[in-house]
Amino acid sequence: MRIYAPDHEVLNALRGTNIELLVDVANEDIQSIATNPSAAANWVQNNIKNYSPAVKFRYIAVGNEVSLSSSIAQYVGPAMERIQSALASAGLQNQIKVSTSIAGNLLSVSYPPSQGSFSNEARPFIKPIINLLVQNNAPLLVNVYPYFSYIGDPVNIHLDYALFTSQGTVVQDGSFGYRNIFDAILDAHYSALDKEGGSNVNIVVSETGWPSDGNPPAASSGNAGTYYRNVISHVKSGQGTPRRPGRGIETYLFAMFDENQKPGAETERHFGLFFPNQQSKYRISFN
């Protein structure tokens, strides 16, 4: 499970459940943690140590999709270092990995996947983060959305390539063949990591999903149900991606519930597996 801030009511509910948790340092807290020596220690004490081991923390994401143009971008790496040090002081550094969650727009090249590379603008932001991940054997968290790739370029990216329903190879990239864009996005990021000294860094998909409404015909219950069922099957299959075969792909579905009061595009209110009244939207199995 992933939560985007350490909500104590949620943390108390998770005690003793054995559910592994990815918890975010909220974007608005990053600067203070990076600049205030006691802030990281207090954050770890109040939100992690006070609940561990009853709550099974797996990752801490220092920020979610922090924009390169944001005033806090420069503080993400230093805040990660502070949180890592605070975990070490608490004796939790071997149990919980520290990372940050990025969007796909940090790549300047994503096609073909073998040419994936971080943009010149992103490199000063991401390179110190990659160094930290390598040093601490932590994964990079990436939000992967074939839906947005498809609606952004429906002429060249076909719906079956986005929904895992292609009957054969769609993109041939040297010796690697791609039948779905999910794998292509991941491998573009692996290629970018390789170029920055992060060849041993694993990727965890910290968000993926498809909206059920708000932008027909792409956003529909039928397409969303197909996507969720197929992505679950794919990441659990152990196939991996063409560049990283033979392994499961740790993946977090976005989101559990429709956020019916969320601002922005109408589709943003329809990514849930459940309606706000807790009624299930799809027949989905994780077994």
Automatic annotation (TrEMBL):
InterPro entries to which the protein is assigned, alphabetical: GH (IPR017853), Glyco_hydro_17 (IPR000490), Glyco_hydro_17_plant (IPR044965)
Keyword match Hydrolase: yes
Record-level GO BP terms: carbohydrate metabolic process
Pfam families xref list: Glyco_hydro_17 (PF00332)
Alphabetized GO MF terms: hydrolase activity, hydrolyzing O-glycosyl compounds
Domain of life: Eukaryota
Entry keywords, A to Z: Glycosidase, Hydrolase
Name of the protein in question: Glucan endo-1,3-beta-glucosidase-like
Gene: LOC113724462
